[in-house]
């Protein structure tokens, strides 16, 4: 029996919206499908500022990467990188120093295939298909990629990802595992939705995402502080997206930024 | 307004509508170049804006807002339509890209599927378990050769399209269908069961089966997967073991354990009667003719009683070496007793030995329903003891009152060793008077326990085999006491009479000699200095030893 039998389920379903493609759509990207756009419209109803938040989050990622590079980081582990979209980490980093290595991590098949397409001709960047909430698997694969040297400081990036990590997945233990794997002087960039800002809109977003493949779990500032155990927060600490080391004068309303951002240095 | 200032305003307007992954200075420089180029070629500026990713929903409006005071409407119209066109092309490019990604992802998934499918096929084909995948119509979609073998078919493909449930025993079908339904409706994740399959050659096969649900990509129930293990051998072994646990290996009758559960079950229904049979003088057969003969005899007895039990729809068991038990329902005791004795009385020849058989029988008739099986067995046993005491071929009906009395005595006897161990038995010294002169002749040492008199205590000790050690202890203690009196009173010390065992028939035969043997050394050891230890037997029931302390 070599042919596929009828009862084996198909492994890929593009009819279901994904958070990665929803994010792409909010950023004005075209790497998305009707189902993703439908979900995005509901998301926008609950949080009318969603496009701005997506933009601010992407901009924070850029600033965080450049901040780390200013502090000597030349290798990045981007957890839950999603669909390659405008301003990818390897583009930003390699523009600043071409000899920078980047390992992307995602477990969504289309995001992974897409990333492989983009990275095909870049020997200094790759994507590994793993679940970022299973650090042991991720770290093993990242080590095998030969792009990350765990004896040298690493820039660990989780931008707009941890709000998809449920309390059951033990986010503290997840962060701690990555912290323990990297040497002193490594950095963690972190941003995630919070109910501290616009609690009503946040509740609406949680409700919209509840039925999707990627339910969301906003966290308070205190909870996020707990995740930085073993890190020293760099100035200005945990703040709404546009307030984290803004470039020039900030014109965005921090109270409507939805997401807290922070960077910590491993001590 | 100067161009650099305009570029700065444009940059601020654009960066709040879209994410442009460049520094502000870089963006501003790009926009300044665009401003210079704009009057000549608004189309290339539009393309640059899109490639810069200034493509937010409000990016164009923001651009027009910033540029409209400075530039003419026709130019801005050209810019707008070129921007729209570039956006369209960009969207097509991105869609193309994501489609390629999808195709790749699908190919990868399919490759993975092929591998996992190959793995599955390996497990499926080489499994020692029969595996069937069935649709909700109950028909096999796939089945492996192991399952085919279990049901007596050539290969797994022979099963495809056939109803799996048709291979099960007709009696099992309804229950199985219900179990499958429960799995399908999500009431249970899986079920495990022990069932009987009927092979193609109509031989039954015992199987252990586990069935669960396979869902499709949308998580909807799609198929059942059933694992089947042939446990016929195991089942036979289990039944054998069960039989051995509940039956007597010599006669094949139920054992005590099994009989008790049957009694327990019988107590709720029709009035029952228990017969506890003890073969008379069976030990004579065993000792005289050998155990083989004894065993043969027991089989014959089992056979005959079995026939009788069959006729009476009674339950029969062998509950001890030469003891049997029978439970009948709504029975006439006297006629059953006769039938039992008649069945046993038939001349029996074992290894050329003609053996006459009879039994003593204890009967418990129509006990109350609240009695326990253990209690009834004990009552029947007590009745049997009574019957045996009357001679051979006797029977006795259990008498609850008599039983209570006996039980009290037995309970006391059973507690005696413990009581002695704990020093609860006492020795008391009572003065002995001359009946006429009231003169004190000496003292009598007596046992005392609880409310019991010396004689009752000794009788109890006799029945438990404690009379010898207790008697010796009594002698030792009393002699020591006598020695103390001699030391204190000299010639005026009272003569001490020691009351030993009650003169039951058994002690009269065996005790005196042994008592005699043990008494003298005891007296010497204890230094009562007696030179004359003599035995006097008082008329009545007590043998007494008298230690005279007078010097000869």
From TrEMBL, chain A:
SUPFAM superfamilies referenced in this protein's UniProt entry, alphabetically: S-adenosyl-L-methionine-dependent methyltransferases
Entry-linked InterPro entries: SAM-dependent_MTases_sf (IPR029063), SAM_dep_MeTrfase_SAV2177_type (IPR006764)
Stored Pfam families: Methyltransf_19
Name of the protein in question: S-adenosyl methyltransferase
TrEMBL record, chain B:
Origin: domain of life: Bacteria
PROSITE patterns, alphabetized: EAL (PS50883), GGDEF (PS50887), PAC (PS50113), PAS (PS50112)
Domain GGDEF residue range list: 270-400
Family annotation (InterPro entries): Biofilm_reg_signaling, EAL_dom, EAL_sf, GGDEF_dom, Nucleotide_cyclase, PAS, PAS-assoc_C, PAS-like_dom_sf
Domain PAC stretches: 191-243
CDD domains named among the record's database cross-references: GGDEF (cd01949), PAS (cd00130)
Domain EAL residue range list: 409-552
The protein's name in its UniProt record: Diguanylate cyclase
Species, as recorded: Lentzea indica
Lineage: Bacteria, Bacillati, Actinomycetota, Actinomycetes, Pseudonocardiales
């Amino acid at each position: 029996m070599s042919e596929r039998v009828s009862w084996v389920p198909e492994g890929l379903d593009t009819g279901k919206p994904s958070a990665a493609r929803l994010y792409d759509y909010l950023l004005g990207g075209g790497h998305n499908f009707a189902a993703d756009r439908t979900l995005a419209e509901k998301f926008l109803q609950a949080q009318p500022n969603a496009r701005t938040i997506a933009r601010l989050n992407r901009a924070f990622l850029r600033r965080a990467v450049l901040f780390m590079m200013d502090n000597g980081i030349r290798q990045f582990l981007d957890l839950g990188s999603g669909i390659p979209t405008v301003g990818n980490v390897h583009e930003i980093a390699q523009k600043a120093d071409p000899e920078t290595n980047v390992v992307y991590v995602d477990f969504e098949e289309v995001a992974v295939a897409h990333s492989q397409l983009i990275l095909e001709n870049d020997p200094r960047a790759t994507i590994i298909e793993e679940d970022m909430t299973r650090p042991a698997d991720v770290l093993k694969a990242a080590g095998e990629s030969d792009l990350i040297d765990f004896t040298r400081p690493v820039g660990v990036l989780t931008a707009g990802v941890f709000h998809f990590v449920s309390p059951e997945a033990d986010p503290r233990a997840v962060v701690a595992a990555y912290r323990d794997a990297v040497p002193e002087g490594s950095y963690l960039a972190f941003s995630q939705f919070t109910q501290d800002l616009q609690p009503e809109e946040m509740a609406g977003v949680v409700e919209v995402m509840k039925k999707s493949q990627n339910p969301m779990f906003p966290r308070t500032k205190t909870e996020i502080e707990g995740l930085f155990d073993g890190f020293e927060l760099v100035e200005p600490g945990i703040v709404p997206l546009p307030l984290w080391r803004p470039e020039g004068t900030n014109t965005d309303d921090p109270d409507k930024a939805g997401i807290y951002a922070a960077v910590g240095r491993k001590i | 307004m100067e161009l650099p200032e305009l570029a700065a305003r444009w940059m601020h307007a654009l960066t709040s509508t879209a994410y442009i992954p460049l520094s502000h200075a870089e963006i501003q420089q790009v926009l300044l170049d665009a401003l210079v180029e704009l009057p000549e070629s608004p189309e290339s500026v539009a393309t640059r804006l899109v490639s810069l990713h200034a493509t937010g929903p409000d990016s164009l409006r923001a651009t027009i807002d910033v540029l409209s005071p400075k530039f003419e409407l026709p130019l801005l119209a050209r810019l707008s339509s070129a921007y729209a066109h570039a956006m369209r092309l960009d969207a097509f490019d991105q869609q193309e890209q994501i489609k390629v990604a999808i195709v790749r992802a699908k190919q990868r998934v399919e490759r993975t599927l092929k591998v996992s499918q190959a793995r599955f096929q390996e497990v499926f084909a080489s499994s020692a378990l029969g595996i069937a995948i069935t649709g909700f119509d109950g028909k096999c979609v796939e089945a492996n050769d192991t399952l085919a073998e279990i049901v007596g078919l050539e290969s797994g493909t022979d099963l495809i399209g056939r109803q799996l449930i048709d291979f099960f025993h007709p009696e099992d079908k309804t229950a199985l269908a219900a179990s499958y339904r429960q799995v399908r409706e999500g009431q249970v994740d899986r079920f495990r069961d022990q069932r009987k399959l009927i092979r193609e050659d109509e031989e039954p096969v015992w199987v252990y089966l586990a069935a669960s649900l396979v869902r499709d990509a949308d998580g909807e129930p799609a198929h059942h997967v059933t694992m089947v293990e042939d446990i016929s051998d195991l089942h036979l072994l289990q039944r054998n073991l069960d039989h051995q646990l509940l039956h007597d290996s010599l006669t094949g009758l139920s054992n005590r354990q099994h009989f008790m559960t049957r009694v327990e079950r019988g107590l709720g229904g029709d009035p029952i009667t228990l017969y506890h049979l003890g073969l008379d003088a069976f030990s004579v057969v065993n000792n005289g003719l050998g155990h083989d003969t004894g065993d043969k005899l027991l089989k014959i007895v089992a056979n005959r009683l079995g026939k009788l039990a069959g006729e009476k729809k009674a339950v029969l068991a062998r509950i001890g070496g030469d003891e049997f038990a029978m439970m009948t329902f709504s029975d006439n005791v006297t006629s059953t007793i006769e039938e039992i004795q008649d069945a046993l009385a038939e001349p029996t020849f074992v290894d050329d030995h003609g053996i006459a058989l009879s039994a003593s029988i204890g009967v418990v008739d129509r006990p109350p329903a609240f009695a326990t099986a253990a209690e009834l067995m004990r009552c029947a046993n007590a009745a049997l003891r009574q019957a045996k005491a009357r001679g051979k071929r006797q029977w006795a009906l259990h008498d609850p009152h008599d039983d209570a009395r006996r039980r009290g005595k037995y309970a006391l006897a059973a507690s005696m060793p413990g009581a002695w161990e704990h020093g609860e038995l006492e020795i008391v010294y009572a003065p002995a008077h001359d009946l006429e002169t009231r003169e004190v002749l000496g003292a009598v040492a007596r046992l005392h326990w609880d409310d019991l008199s010396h004689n009752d205590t000794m009788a109890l000790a006799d029945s438990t085999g404690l009379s010898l050690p207790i008697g010796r202890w009594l002698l030792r203690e009393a002699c020591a006491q006598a020695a103390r009196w001699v030391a204190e009173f000299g010639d005026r010390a009272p003569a001490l009479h020691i009351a030993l065992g009650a003169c039951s028939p058994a002690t009269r035969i065996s005790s005196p000699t042994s008592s005699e043997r043990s008494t003298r050394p005891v007296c010497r050891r204890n230094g009562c200095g007696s030179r004359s230890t003599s035995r006097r037997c008082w008329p009545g029931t007590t043998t007494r030893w008298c230690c005279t302390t007078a010097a000869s």
